[in-house]
Design brief:
disordered N terminus, globular, about 150 residues, mainly alpha
């Protein structure tokens, strides 16, 4: 796996810039237009900026919009697969259980209504996060299928 020689964080696009080696610009609203994947095993990087969790009613809508806007961009580029981290769950403080439900429900609803992308992958930070997503995905898929 390729890693740039310098992985110092770049303001507002830290992880994306560290992996691509290029700053792709300041966030526009809550989703950036796509950037090329460069040396990543991906054609594009879609950078979304999630909300800082404050327990407000609009937090869930803002988080859902991050997923919807990213999925729309993936659809416009005719991408078959998109991968998401647990948006806003790190330093932005979104509780993983709540964020998981929003992510899965939003992505499932989008996939039911659109042909692209065909698959969503969740890339998670910890084993605990994986457990939360695995449990919720199992229950969500069970309710859809039966």
């Amino acid at each position: 796996m390729w890693m740039p020689s310098s992985t110092r964080p770049i303001p507002r696009c830290g992880a994306v810039a560290a992996w691509t080696g290029r700053f792709i610009g300041p966030p526009a609203r809550n989703c950036l237009p796509n950037a090329k994947g460069y040396r990543l095993p991906a054609r594009y990087v879609i950078h979304t900026v999630g909300p800082v969790y404050r327990g407000r009613p609009q937090d869930s809508r803002l988080l859902s919009d991050c997923y919807i806007n990213s999925l729309r961009l993936a659809m416009q580029k005719d991408l078959k697969t998109v991968a998401f981290p647990a948006i806003s769950c790190g330093v932005y403080g979104y509780p993983i259980d709540d964020a998981c439900k929003i992510a899965v429900d939003t992505c499932m609803a989008f996939l039911e209504q659109h042909e692209r992308p065909q698959r969503v992958i969740y890339m998670l930070f910890s084993a605990d996060d994986l457990t939360v997503y695995t449990r919720y995905l199992a229950s969500a898929l069970q309710s859809v299928s039966g």
